[in-house]
Amino acid sequence: EQSSLWLxxxxxxxxxxxxxxxxxxxxxxxxxxxxxxxxxxxxxLSHLAPLAAPCAAAPAAAEPPAGETPExxxxxxxxxxxxxxxxxxxxxxxxxxxxxxRFPDDAGLGEALEAAARAAGLTDPRQIAxxxxxxxxxxxxxxxxxxxxxxxxxxxxxxxxxxxxAEDPWGRIDILAQGADGRWWLVDFKxxxxxxxxxxxxxxxxxxxxxxxxxxxxxxxxxATPRLLLCFLDCQGDVRVHDxxxxx
Length: 248
Description:
Layout: E1 2-8, E2 11-17, H1 25-28, H2 87-100, H3 109-119, H4 125-143, H5 146-152, E3 156-163, E4 170-178, E5 184-190, H6 197-222, E6 227-235, E7 238-244
Parallel strand pairs: 5-6
Antiparallel strand pairs: 1-2, 3-4, 4-5, 6-7
């Protein structure tokens, strides 16, 4: 038998393959076949069939869904000196700060972001420092926003996992909070760099269906329609929050 292991979204996934059709029971168990016409000696198990029937073909190893960021890239190496860290990695560091609810000048944030950068595969010291600085700048900007003040005072849960139907079987919600209005707030943070109004509208259209799927999952749990908020942390140099309508 063969197996493969890989990590995806914090889960260890394993594929197990049975013996190939060309292998008989003896070969599949690592034993030589018995000569024709001979009887297996007493106590031998070679005449027993394997517990699992041989597979017609080994299935292809499972792969992450298209468009998703891998849990870990084994090594991120800059092609030239002074190259910035990938934007997806900066976004990952921002989400570490949001999950911990720590912001610049809070104890331990810098160390946590640096550790997360190394765990994600970053190796160049200048890239690590640059990624940490970029993430802290976005977190500092959010810390000055009205939404931060509202969430900071609200009962909330961070990176809430959920499992729903076949259309969107599982996911992770950045923040689920109970606002001052008594409603549940579902907040999804985006670190995309947005430079124009047209780009902003395009990004809202791109991310809105995902947030609406999250909203349906939460509505099924809390028996109420939550408020859906897309929070862009780098929209023309500012924080911009978009109220997303619930899916029809």
